[in-house]
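$ run holo --ligand "zinc ion" --emit tokens
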Amino acid sequence: MNAPKAPKRIGASVSFVFVAVFASPLAHAQAISPQALVRAYPDHLAGADEASVQWRDGTKQPLSDGRADKSFDEKLRRASLLDQLSLPYKTGPLAQPPGPNDDPGRFRNAAFFDKMYGDCDKGETQKRLVDVPWVGGKAVRVTTVNGVADKLRAIRQELEQLPPPVKRLTFPSAGAFNCRVVKDTGARSMHAYGAAIDISIAQADYWLWRKGAYRNRIPYEIVEIFERHGFIWGGKWGHFDTMHFEYRPEFFAAKDKAN
Ligand SMILES: [Zn+2]
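-- output --
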């Protein structure tokens, strides 16, 4: 399942081979358009073209870092925006466990999210955090940027309506804002931006605990609510983390003229 990743800025013939590889029903992959970023983050982005995104403050950020030869691990540690857009996230129930490196959303461009949510090591992120009551009543600290706090309030309302045995899996939250890096990559987690939440740890499964053997005990009823509000689920990653949800609306804004 270690399919070659998209080389950037290379000849058309090689690109064609890549498309053919990913045209298999299993992969079902098409890189997400940079326009999806603009649709997903309208408060911050004014536009995008083939080479860059334009921020509303007038700055331009290149999509590529000029590196066509990065390994999977390098993309996890130092993702370009193109890397960030390279693995589409599939909505809907999981038909089968994700492939080993099927990690849509785990490539995160740090400059992009630092600029949007702030750098927590400099205390910037913390200025935009609020406490939101979570299922069960205990508050979680999350960002107001991109309306994340309001979306989590709406998600909570819906989770509260679930049948008690399902609702029980959503609280107490195992954490939201946390100025930390991802255990295995050293890259900043979406928790460091206040844009991620871990639901109850009681029925959670994590790839590092399980030596990679996929298991999930979180029903799709819960996942569906988060997805509808722009959150992706860590249970859809080969490196699974089934209590984890993070706000990544670009994966739900992918429909455009290229599709
Ligand atoms: Zn998490």
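-- notes --
Residues 58-93+106-252 form a domain with the Muramoyl-pentapeptide Carboxypeptidase; domain 2 fold (CATH 3.30.1380).
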